[in-house]
């Protein structure tokens, strides 16, 4: 295996040059005792030990990054902290005194608040209510004090420079503003500890910057922040300390200034993983897919590109740039308003995914749980779902053939499962993704579209997915990969199309294919070349 | 913004006004204050039950047992009155409320503690409650002459020109309009139905909130049970048979989303009024009352189609705005 | 992957037979047998071929609808208008009789009305994207409402004598036409749900409609077909019921929708969609029929039986949950 261009990305690439390392900004005298300490926390679920005697310390005015692979126990510890789960053993200390959080409310009253991964807001309630739900000011008869609620909401919204009408129903807001409300909510309880669970996962670059500013402000106010993230660039940028979980146990902790990226990775996976993208030396073959002038009423406009056999075409852009929508239009989920998609020179009339699949175009969606796997059905039925015509006879199921077909791809993808009739819901994220990929390979496609193929899966599975993509391309499959991870885009793609606000911002290949060029085009920064 | 939010209710008011105007154009007597008051009084039970159903639907549940609850409570009240004619009305009222609340609580507990889907629970308790009426009454009717004058007189007694039944509906409606906005429980109904997952994170107990919705719905069904039996001066196994669907219909027409978390108290009241006006107008304009069922069916389908279109159109606007922000 | 050892993954860990033994259907079958034994001990009239044959009329018509309803509920939808479709189809047939139609025409009208009603529900749900529970509460009023408009408080009678075969005729010995039709339909729906691609699509849609769509299943088309089938079954039930009663009133089959749903849920179909079997529904039909018949022999009035059915409906779901709560 040889190292490809872009593979050895240093975190410095993303660091804002005029911002000093975060740890440097904290005066030594502030580094006192931890506000919150967790010791020996253990939590088991039927069949799984989610946390095993883990420890965590959060200091006032500092950001502690919690890192770990998926399933390492990060979400569980957040739920323990916020009173959703009760630990089986261990102590939580607040200012050195032991406390328990029997309910979510108890944690809130102790000054612990969380901005969760999932949207935890209420569309039908007003902005003000969303900020204060659960602890709205009351009159002395126990009724909600609306004037006071409004006044306090304005106060908090002003603090984070959010110009929102507090009495507006939340459903009227866009995604970015909803996020501001979530933050305002976290601030509303005068929290001493703020937990941020992958807060930047759904944000655009500009919004991420605003979030970083906010984190700085929270630090300055002396709050302790627990920051959970998969993105190493942002961890190195904003965190002061780190704690690493591996398989539900503590794998390490310390100051960010004392650790390197590769050391962190080693702690996470328990072994040294050089993030190496597979070598791909075969030149792309003849043209397979041609998209011309494809437009959608609201999502994207006038997109044209071609794709060849054995080629990996990357699609980069910010969230909301229309990449997934474009792919879903090609796959027949949504209908394009104009333009053509042709395969091997013949124009296709794709009105539903079934048409696309029949033509040989398949799509691995971004949202695995909702769009990819049919949780509730066994592995083999998930795999054969689009291939039933192939395994059945005159519409009647042939189970033996289904098992055989599923087995072929399960073995090829090295899926880990107890049996083929196990519910896919019991598989890990990485293995679910393998089932979804197996499902599509079983249809023997010409073109495979992978939308954020490694989002939210652990590093081990990530490498396996990358290797497999290269293998597929080498076999002559035409691959489209939508990704927001720059190393992945740069490391895997032959060519990259950058999208911005529904339009094609650039086509990049060869020596131009660098992280900086991609970021500039995606953000629409003037002077972008290429 | 406010306009958009209120438009569904405004539209419903418009529809009702047009309807009334059309009827009044040919039959002016229909809009005489006396007749309108009569129509309102006739719709009062539907309004009360629709309000209870509204909070249940807001929490993503459904209560199909309200009519059976009503009938059982009504029968108990009637039999009690026969057995003890001197029992004062406030005691009977209190008993009706308590019995209704108990039946609501049974639904609520099954939904809360055993997490059985509400439609299954209330489908089951609907037949159980209805069957229980037969058990306690042995299938016999309780007729007007067996009831005391005070018992049947209460809902009809007139106060400031309106019968007590109407006043109770007004009182319940006013309480709901305020309580849903001012009490933490009222806001919790919206939160739990709108985003149950998030509700857990904010310390709201989804199951318990649903339990209280069922208790409220049951209590109002119990209250209506006494009022119904007293007003019509008869109690038997099948009273208000199938009325649960009319109640759900009033909510749907009023814009309460069956998916939970969306809809207003005013909407539910208007939905009930719409059905009540249609029902009362048919004989006036000389249409057979047999048309009523088909009309309310059509109204439900139109209302749900309209609600779906409104929310879909709004989704598109948000999409554009989000893009604008990005 | 670094430590990927080519491990053999078995097709199944639990054999289908072992799974069957622990299934809902087995439990339900035990309940059915217990009721059967209890009935035969309680009443000397129970174990009589003709009496038992009569008893099947308690459930055959509802069960025919329940088969299609089971598929519909597994797919995540519901149709509460089935009883009203019976009323409308019966009314249409009654009107045709007044116009002098013969039996073949009546059957055609019954089936056609059922299909048409199913299509209305299907279009409203799949084309307009409306929630089926509300839509069918609406069409439930609408369809029966049309019957009321047409009939008012009148009755249609005078069905041709050969029309009576569907609800009163016997194919052989004690086996009525309805019972034979029930058996045939049970097999047809069992095969359709458990042995065909279409059935697999129904399960996939019920578990995750979005992922099913993304897997190339024509979700709306499948759902539309299911509404059509439910309408068709209601039409067939309307023919049998009208034939058996020999008359049509607009209140015909009133409240049946809830009995059909009860039968389906009792049969182990998840009301939230995604799981359930036809054998389960068949056994549930027998359980409900046996209870009704057995209590009937003991002179227990029908409404008390409905209490029993209501308790059964809640009990069968509550007991396993209570059991796990108690053990946990």
Automatic annotation (TrEMBL), chain A:
CDD domains: ABC_Carb_Monos_I, ABC_Carb_Monos_II
Keyword Nucleotide-binding: yes
Compartment(s): Cell membrane
Keyword Aminoacyl-tRNA synthetase found: no
SUPFAM superfamilies assigned: P-loop containing nucleoside triphosphate hydrolases (SSF52540)
UniProtKB keywords: ATP-binding, Cell membrane, Membrane, Nucleotide-binding, Repeat, Sugar transport, Translocase, Transport
Membrane topology: Peripheral membrane protein
GO MF term set: ATP binding; ATP hydrolysis activity
Segments forming domain ABC transporter: 36-272, 283-526
Protein name: Rhamnose ABC transporter ATP-binding protein
Taxonomic lineage from the root: Bacteria, Pseudomonadati, Pseudomonadota, Alphaproteobacteria, Rhodobacterales
TrEMBL record, chain B:
Topological category with respect to the lipid bilayer: Multi-pass membrane protein
Compartment(s): Cell membrane
Entry-linked Pfam families: BPD_transp_2
One MF term in the entry's GO annotations: transmembrane transporter activity
TM region(s), chain numbering: 12-31, 43-60, 91-113, 119-137, 158-180, 211-229, 250-278, 290-310
Function: Part of the ABC transporter complex LsrABCD involved in autoinducer 2 (AI-2) import. Probably responsible for the translocation of the substrate across the membrane.
UniProt subunit comment: The complex is composed of two ATP-binding proteins (LsrA), two transmembrane proteins (LsrC and LsrD) and a solute-binding protein (LsrB).
Name assigned to this protein: Autoinducer 2 import system permease protein LsrC
Organism: Silicimonas algicola
TrEMBL record, chain C:
Subunit structure of this chain's protein: The complex is composed of two ATP-binding proteins (LsrA), two transmembrane proteins (LsrC and LsrD) and a solute-binding protein (LsrB).
Localization per record: Cell membrane
Species of provenance: Silicimonas algicola
Entry protein name: Autoinducer 2 import system permease protein LsrD
Cell inner membrane in keyword set: yes
Protein origin, superkingdom: Bacteria
GO CC term (a single one): plasma membrane
Pfam families recorded: BPD_transp_2 (PF02653)
Broad class of the protein's primary localization: membrane
Role, per record: Part of the ABC transporter complex LsrABCD involved in autoinducer 2 (AI-2) import. Probably responsible for the translocation of the substrate across the membrane.
Annotated membrane topology: Multi-pass membrane protein
Keyword Lyase among record annotations: no
Keyword tags: Cell inner membrane, Cell membrane, Membrane, Transmembrane, Transmembrane helix, Transport
Transmembrane portions of the chain: 27-47, 67-93, 105-125, 132-150, 170-192, 224-246, 252-273, 303-323
InterPro entries xref list: ABC_transp_permease
């Amino acid at each position: 295996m040889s190292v490809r261009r872009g593979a050895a990305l240093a975190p410095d690439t993303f660091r804002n040059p005029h911002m000093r390392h975060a740890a440097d900004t904290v005066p030594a005298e502030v580094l006192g005792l931890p506000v919150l300490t967790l010791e020996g926390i253990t939590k088991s679920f039927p069949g799984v030990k989610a946390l095993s005697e883990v420890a965590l310390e959060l200091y006032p005015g500092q950001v502690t990054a919690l890192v770990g692979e998926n399933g390492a126990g990060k979400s569980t510890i957040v739920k323990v902290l916020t009173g959703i789960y009760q630990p089986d053993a261990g102590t939580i200390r607040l200012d050195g005194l032991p406390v328990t959080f029997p309910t979510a409310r108890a944690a809130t009253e102790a000054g612990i608040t969380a901005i969760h991964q999932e949207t935890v807001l209420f569309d039908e309630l007003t902005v003000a209510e969303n900020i204060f739900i659960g602890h709205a000011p009351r009159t002395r008869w126990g009724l909600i004090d609306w004037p006071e609620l409004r006044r306090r909401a304005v106060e908090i919204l002003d603090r984070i420079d959010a110009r929102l009408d507090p009495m507006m129903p939340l459903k009227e807001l866009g995604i970015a503003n909803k996020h501001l409300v979530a933050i305002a909510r976290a601030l509303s309880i005068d929290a001493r500890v703020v937990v941020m669970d992958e807060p930047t996962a759904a944000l655009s670059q500009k919004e991420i910057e605003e979030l970083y500013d906010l984190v700085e402000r929270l630090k300055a106010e002396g709050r302790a922040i627990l920051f959970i993230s998969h993105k190493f660039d942002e961890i190195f940028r904003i965190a002061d300390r780190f704690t690493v979980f591996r398989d539900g146990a503590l794998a390490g902790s310390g100051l960010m200034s004392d650790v390197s990226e590769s050391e962190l990775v080693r702690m996470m996976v328990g072994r040294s993983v050089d993030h190496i993208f597979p070598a791909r030396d075969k030149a792309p073959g003849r043209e397979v897919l041609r998209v011309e002038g494809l437009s959608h009423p609201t999502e994207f406009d006038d997109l044209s590109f071609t794709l060849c056999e054995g080629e990996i075409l990357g699609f980069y852009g910010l969230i909301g740039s229309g990449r997934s929508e474009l792919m879903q239009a090609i796959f027949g989920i949504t209908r394009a308003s104009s333009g053509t998609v042709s395969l091997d020179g013949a124009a296709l009339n794709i009105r539903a995914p079934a048409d696309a699949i029949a033509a040989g175009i398949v799509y691995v969606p971004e949202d695995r749980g909702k769009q990819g796997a049919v949780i509730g059905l066994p592995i083999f039925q998930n795999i054969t779902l689009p291939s039933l015509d192939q395994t059945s006879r005159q519409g009647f199921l042939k189970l033996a053939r289904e098992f055989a077909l599923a087995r072929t791809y399960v073995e090829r993808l090295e899926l880990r499962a107890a049996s083929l009739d196990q519910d896919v819901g019991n598989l890990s994220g990485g293995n679910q993704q393998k089932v979804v990929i197996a499902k599509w390979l079983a249809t023997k496609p010409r073109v495979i579209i992978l939308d954020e193929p490694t989002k939210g899966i652990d590093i081990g599975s990530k490498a396996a997915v990358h290797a497999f993509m290269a293998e597929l391309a080498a076999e002559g499959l035409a691959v489209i990969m939508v990704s927001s991870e720059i190393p992945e885009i740069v490391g895997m793609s032959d060519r990259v199309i950058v999208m911005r606000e529904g339009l094609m911002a650039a086509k990049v290949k060869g020596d131009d294919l660098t992280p900086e060029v991609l970021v500039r085009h995606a953000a629409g920064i003037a002077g972008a070349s290429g | 913004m406010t306009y958009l939010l209120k438009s569904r209710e405004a539209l419903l008011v418009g529809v009702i006004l047009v309807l009334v105007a059309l009827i009044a154009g040919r039959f002016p007597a229909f809009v005489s204050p006396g007749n309108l008051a009569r129509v309102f009084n006739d719709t009062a039970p539907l309004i009360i039950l629709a309000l209870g159903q509204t909070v249940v639907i807001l929490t993503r549940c459904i209560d199909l047992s309200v009519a059976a609850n009503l009938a059982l409570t009504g029968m108990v009240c009637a039999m009690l009155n026969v057995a003890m004619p001197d029992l004062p009305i406030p005691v009977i009222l209190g008993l009706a409320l308590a019995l209704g609340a108990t039946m609501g609580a049974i639904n609520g507990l099954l939904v809360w503690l055993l997490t059985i889907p509400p439609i299954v629970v209330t489908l089951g308790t609907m037949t159980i409650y209805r069957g229980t009426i037969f058990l306690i009454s042995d299938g016999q009717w309780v007729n007007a002459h067996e009831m005391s004058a005070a018992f049947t007189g209460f809902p009809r007694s007139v106060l400031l020109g309106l019968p007590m039944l109407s006043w109770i509906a007004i009182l319940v409606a006013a309480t709901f309009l305020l309580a849903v906005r001012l009490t933490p429980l009222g806001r919790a109904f919206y939160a739990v139905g709108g985003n149950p997952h998030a509700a857990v994170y904010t310390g709201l107990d989804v199951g318990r909130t649903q339990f209280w919705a069922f208790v409220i719905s049951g209590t109002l069904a119990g209250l209506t049970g006494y009022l119904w039996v007293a007003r019509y001066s008869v109690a038997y196994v099948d009273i208000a048979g199938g009325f649960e669907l009319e109640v759900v219909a009033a909510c749907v027409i009023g814009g309460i989303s069956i998916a939970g978390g969306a809809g207003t108290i005013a909407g539910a009241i208007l939905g009930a009024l719409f059905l009540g006006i249609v029902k009362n107008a048919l004989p006036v304009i000389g249409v057979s009352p047999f048309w009523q069922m088909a009309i309310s069916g059509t109204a439900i389908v139109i209302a749900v189609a309209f609600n779906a279109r409104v929310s879909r159109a709004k989704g598109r606007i948000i999409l554009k705005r989000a893009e604008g922000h990005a | 992957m670094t430590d990927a050892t080519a491990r053999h993954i078995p097709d199944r860990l639990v054999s289908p037979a072992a799974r069957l033994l622990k299934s809902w259907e087995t439990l339900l079958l035990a309940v059915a047998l217990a009721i059967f034994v209890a009935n035969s001990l309680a009443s000397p009239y129970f174990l009589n071929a003709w009496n038992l044959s009569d008893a099947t009329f308690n459930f055959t018509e509802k069960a025919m609808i329940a088969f299609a309803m089971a598929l519909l509920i597994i797919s995540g939808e519901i149709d509460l208008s089935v009883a009203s479709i019976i009323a409308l189809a019966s009314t249409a047939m009654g009107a045709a009789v007044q116009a002098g139609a013969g039996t073949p025409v009546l059957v055609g009208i019954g089936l056609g009305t059922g299909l048409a009603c199913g299509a209305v529900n299907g279009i409203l749900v799949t084309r307009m994207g409306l929630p089926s529970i509300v839509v069918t509460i609406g069409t439930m009023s609408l369809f029966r409402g049309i019957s009321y408009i047409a009939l008012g408080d009148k009755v249609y009678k005078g069905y041709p004598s050969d029309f009576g075969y569907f609800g009163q005729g016997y194919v052989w010995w004690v086996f009525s036409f309805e019972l034979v039709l029930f058996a045939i339909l049970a097999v047809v729906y069992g095969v359709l749900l458990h042995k065909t691609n279409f059935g697999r699509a129904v399960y996939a849609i019920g578990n995750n409609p979005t992922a099913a769509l993304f897997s190339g299943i024509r979700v709306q088309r499948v759902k539309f077909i299911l509404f059509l089938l439910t309408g068709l079954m209601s039409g067939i039930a309307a023919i049998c019921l009208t034939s058996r009663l020999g008359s049509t009133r607009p209140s015909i089959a009133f409240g049946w929708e809830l009995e059909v749903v009860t039968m389906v849920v009792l049969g182990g179909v998840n009301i939230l969609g995604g799981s359930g079997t036809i054998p389960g529904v068949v056994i549930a039909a027998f359980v409900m029929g046996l209870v009704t018949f057995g209590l009937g022999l003991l002179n227990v009035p029908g409404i008390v039986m409905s209490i029993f059915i209501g308790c059964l409906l809640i009990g069968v779901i509550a007991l396993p949950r209570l059991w796990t709560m108690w053990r946990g």
